[in-house]
Amino acid sequence: MVGGDAVRAPTGVFREVVSAMSKNRRRPPAIVRLVGAEVKDSADLEPGYLGLVGRVRVPMDGGDDGADVSTEDDGASYTGVEVTLDAHMKGVRTWAGQFATQCGLPPERVRDLEIAARWHDAGKVDPRFQRMLRGGSPLADVASQPLAKSRIVAADRATRIRARERSQYPKGARHELSSVSLLERGVSLLAEAADTDLVLHLVASHHGWCRPFAPVVEDREPVQLTLDAEGVQVQVSSRHDLAALDSGIPARFWLLVERYGWFGLAWLEAILRLADHRRSEEEQRRAFADQEST
Length: 294
What we know:
- The protein is α+β, with helices and mostly antiparallel strands.
- It is globular and about 45 Å long.
- The chain has nine helices and seven strands.
- A three-stranded antiparallel beta sheet has the order 1-2-3, with no helix packed on it. A two-stranded antiparallel ribbon has the order 4-5. It has a two-stranded antiparallel ribbon with strand order 6-7.
- Helix 2 (85-102) crosses helix 9, helix 3 crosses helix 7 and helix 8 (249-260) packs across helix 9.
- The longest helix has 32 residues, at 262-293.
- It has helices at 12-22, 85-102, 107-119, 127-133, 157-167, 175-185, 196-204, 249-260, 262-293, and strands spanning 2-7, 30-34, 49-53, 83-84, 147-149, 224-229, 232-237.
- The chain folds into two domains: 2-53, no CATH class; 74-277, no CATH class.
């Protein structure tokens, strides 16, 4: 639990850390106190753990500025490398299984993480999302395979905005909620899950939302989503209403907190999110290596 006032003028090592993180920033990070421990490093700070609060910006495409280090929006889909949806989800499943196994999780938890990873981005089959990844082009409707990643780079904000507007994908819509909707309809995809609630929550939360609430976004012109999943075809409307308080999303979060504990659930979420990051990184490395070899 966070408590105490922010301290903006620490001494010693903390001053050096804040100074380093504050370079080229409009707002310096704050140091906040977490009740429950003693701090012996500095006489200027009240007892408690220390936490640096702030967002970090990293250079992209060689520039001095960049995008927030965050996966809360769909900027993570714009990597500059075109990757099919099926290949990406299978790759994330492999990483998630490896991470979970190396963490010593029991086989049933490993399997749950693999299932969540296999279908975490299924909601990207939304035809408007596919058009958006292709710059808003209507040709996406006749593409052979749906994409998970776009050739557009995240730093090209103007192109991203134009692509979304042309595609008519609702601003702020969450593909992970569409993934949950598809999984809830395609129950056979969850047949091997030991904890169905955990799988659905991991899918819903893999961009940081749904802990416990989902963002409310109006879909005024809903479309049909069709997922061809290894011989199973699942269809749902994009108007899934999962942002409603009684949708099951918030209740599922609290159920799982009770079942796994605060840190246990966060740990399971982190495994899937890091698997997603590592797979995306792997895809980019391979693409750049292929470019250099040619």
